[in-house]
Amino acid sequence: MSNKIYPIGIQNFEKIRNDGYFYIDKTALIYQMVKTGSYYFLSRPRRFGKSLLISTLEAYFQGKKELFTGLAMEELEKDWIKYPILHLDLNIEKYDAPESLDNILDKSLTAWEKLYGAEPSERSLSLRFAGIIERACKLAGQRVVILVDEYDKPMLQAIGNEELQRQFRNTLKPFYGALKTMDGCIKFALLTGVTKFGKVSVFSDLNNLDDISMRNLYIDICGVSEQEIHSNLEAELHEFAEARGVTYEKLCAELRENYDGYHFTHNSIGIYNPFSLLNAFKYREFGSYWFETGTPTYLVKLLKKHHYDLERMTHEETDAQVLNSIDSESTNPIPVIYQSGYLTIKGYDERFGMYRLGFPNREVEEGFIRFLLPYYTKISKVESPFEIQKFVREVESGDYDSFFRRLQSFFADTTYEVIREQELHYENVLFIVFKLVGFYTQVEYKTNDGRIDLVLQTDKFIYIMEFKLDGTAEEALQQINDKQYALPFKMDERKLFKIGINFSAKSRNIEKWIVES
After folding, report:
1. Distances from the Cα of 454 to the Cαs of 199, 434, 435, in angstroms?
2. Alpha-carbon distance 398 to 144, whole Å?
3. What does pTM read for this prediction?
4. Which end of the chain has fewer CB atoms within 10 angstroms, the N or the C?
5. Across the beta sheet with 144-149, what order do the strands follow?
């Protein structure tokens, strides 16, 4: 029986090591990072181990050799020099007013000034920061280490509020700029966050940062690789499989389907979400552990604000420049959604330098689509799981009339500003519903100029559907027959339904469906 204690939600390296928590050794990568550069930036989704990485670096630069016993670092590091450390954690504040950022920066600066002294002439936050770096270096006789956790939290929380974002940007830009000004006094700096705000943003003065977010060399510095699972948790995998009453191979496949699949560059290994993975091992149950710890409300607001076609999310294409940097004034929601961990890299076209994106795994895909439902329909968060359950039962029992009546209720009471928005809304609602039904049945979904072709398969039935916007249900059915959509299923013994559906712009709902079996 495994006696591992899993560090769920514990981000302090010293606590993990002293209290006997399970730790996957990342110190060889940390040593490499420290010895081959000075200024780094790393973006990873939330709860991916960024704070633990910062805490490990802090213990290393404090010279706490005893914490690294039995780890790769114990053999690699010979000197164990103690450096002055300025650790700024922006994760603990709610940034809803300009002074909220000033307050937290002032609090950290004041604490450092008690250690390293203050200078009355340093009135601005950035001048105080630069002065502290210089004095810390002189007093300690060693250059300074600067660790910034969640550097972008203020900017992220102000998405949608352009004035507040501008004020935060104007504060952070010169503040982080001190890192470049005081280069001679700095030994090492790492900034971590969920996103990378570029162009006219907080990074424009910080061009000396090495962004390792998409570097293959550091792909597993946060998160867990397949190899690390088998090296560290092999016995626990067998126990987990036994507890679930499945084979070892089936359990490994389920873990992969639910929690693997993060690719932070092309041609890289897949990375497992550490938070969900460790929870699954602790409780020996599959759950939406990561998704449930944070609701991506700001992402949904972005999607709606920019009238985004949700179907594109499953095969979005973009280049490294867009993927790697968020212009805080941009209208493209995809970089924020990618960097927040709801999309990942699925493929790469080397010739054109284009990345193909998609959902990383089932936990994220199902969680995100379920989360969207109340924002695009009048169905509440509480009702939505039951509605999807009813949809699935209706198609599994061949009760298509109840299915379409329920679907009509999803469009009721919706208002639109323009016709184009109406068409997009109709497509988005259908995408969400059929995507959710598709987690329990087999669904193929295609859109084309106000038309949607759909094939839905259950154990007993095959449904071929053609949706038209402002046409007729008869035309939609005629198209299924003319295009011979049913031909691939000619030899199939399951009962087949051909259904033509028309959506009316005037009534803003499904106006009619006709069925041929």
Report:
1. 41, 9, 11
2. 69
3. 0.91
4. N
5. 85-89, 144-149, 186-193, 39-43, 210-211
